[in-house]
Amino acid sequence: MSSARPASRAGDAARDDAGSLAGRAGPEAVDRPSGLAAANAAQFGSDVVAEMLRRLDVPWIALNPGASYRGLHDSLVNHLGNTAPQMLLCLHEESAVAIAHGWAKVTGRAMAVAVHSNVGLMHATMGLFNAWCDRMPMLVLGATGPVDAVKRRPWIDWIHTTRDQGALVRHYTKWDDQPASPGAARESLMRAWWLANSAPQAPTYVVLDVELQEAALPAPLPALDPARFMPPVVAGPPNDLVAHAAEILAKAERPLILAGRVSRDPAAWDRRVALAEAIGARVATNLKTGTAFPTEHPLHPWPISTFPGDGLIAAMREADVILSLDWIDLAGTLSVLKAPPAATVIQVSLDHQLHNGWSMDHQGLPPVDLMIAADPDATVAALLPALGERKKPAAAASPAVPAPAAAVPAEGPISVEHLARALHAALGDAPAALAHTTISWQGQWWPFRHPLDFLGSDGGGGLGAGPGLAVGAALALKDTERLAVAVCGDGDFLMGVTALWTAVHYRLPLLIVIANNRSFYNDEVHQERVARMRGRPVENKWIGQRIDEPAIDLAAMARAQGATGFGPVERGDALAPTLAEAVAAARAGQVVVVDVSVAPGYGTVAAALTRAP
């Protein structure tokens, strides 16, 4: 199957760092069925579905159990037995989807999720929207009570049956289907897997009728080779457009690259560096996506950020060519110039193929002079040879000079910056993947030198995703040297804390540090701005926002899931030794949570998010 895997913008990502990231964890990390699994042919519709998932090389299926797919559950356990896909038991559907999302952010490939009928899908919708906005692949399997009303049990089958269940998520999935027979289910699964993994990537959803799952097969289905039905999709650029772009870039005197949605593939990373050096282009990257360029490189002169700072704004004004590699919100970024840029804008993206008008995640319509509807990685690979002898020495550039770190006070408030710098120091030179950060994060606090150093944001701005994303990253990085690390706010952690149980149960090394300001502080800032605009008391901004009196013992909540909990860390002189102990425990294989009390405060990122009109 691996030779027929559809091409994707992430491909077989970062295998030099993480080995076979799509491989299964060791025997100690999965739940094993008792007795001998059936070795005979499929007998029921759900057996057909389970066999197809195995044929598709689906590595994992994250789930919260539900009676609507009890037939499929039985087939995965007792028909397939000890083979892929392996189950990952989760305590909430939103966590299951977030774990699949985090897995995809590392590997660039989909895994599967099973959700219980309409009610499970309703729980999962926030996670699906996050993955959709983040353009991450996954295959979600749902179920419904018997479509044939005479076969429904009283009450429960009726409330768990919907006429068009896919309509709940159709606006933020790439494709959905509700097949009516086992034969149709095979084709539906192939199409859903193929489309989810093909660029532009996004979740897909397949609904399985209970009757389809549980009815006996009247006759065996004919054999088929899934590879023949999922041809690789090469989203490469046309030669004439590559030649045109190469000509424009070769002549540019002040080129600028906006590196956005690209893969975690180290070879593609190296090609982006080579392209920037070949044309002497300065490069900007964005905290909304995984890191796309080494932030300490001389051609990356500004800290990675969520919104453009003064340096990038000036560079956009000065540039004669701007090359966007699927930059998120190109229109919004250019809008700070107050007029269309004087530069020739080259846009490389397939994102327009997913724009549907229901969600405004497509952002504004940017000014573009040359559109290359292709995969950014494939386009960069084509541009390098097209430049040929026209390459020129890199223009003089200096990397961003980080501001000196403020000393952590022995007493008094700990800032998010103190936390970030102390955590980075505690991790040292050993590889780590920063799977999540807070809204106040600033790029100068933490350099990124590898495509897996930072995995990007949650995509849709949905609070509660952080723990699940971190668990998914830990699953993908298990049995590698790279440790999954996340920095979560207290509100985010509280909403997703039960995802940690899955990490503990399947022995996934993970470190989560909580920047705990005991508040939904983003909304405090909003309330302060509204109060100032209306001439009302800003002192009341905390009402309905603070998580205090009593303060919640977040470390105890982590321990309740089986994790190792530290904190609350309230003194600066305790921060470094606590983080050192936590890092050592996580690298030894534990799931570790550190609760750090931080002073409420915002950086330039959050200030921009809450700027007054």
UniProtKB/TrEMBL annotation:
Species this chain originates from: Rhodoplanes elegans
Keyword presence, NAD: no
GO BP terms: isoleucine biosynthetic process; L-valine biosynthetic process
Family affiliation: Belongs to the TPP enzyme family.
Residue stretches making up the Thiamine pyrophosphate enzyme central domain: 242-382
GO terms under cellular component: acetolactate synthase complex
Higher taxonomy: Bacteria, Pseudomonadati, Pseudomonadota, Alphaproteobacteria, Hyphomicrobiales
Classification via SUPFAM superfamilies: DHS-like NAD/FAD-binding domain, Thiamin diphosphate-binding fold (THDP-binding)
Annotated segments matching region Disordered: 1-29
UniProt keywords, alphabetically: Thiamine pyrophosphate
CDD domains xrefs: TPP_PYR_POX_like
Protein name per the record: Acetolactate synthase
Domain of life: Bacteria
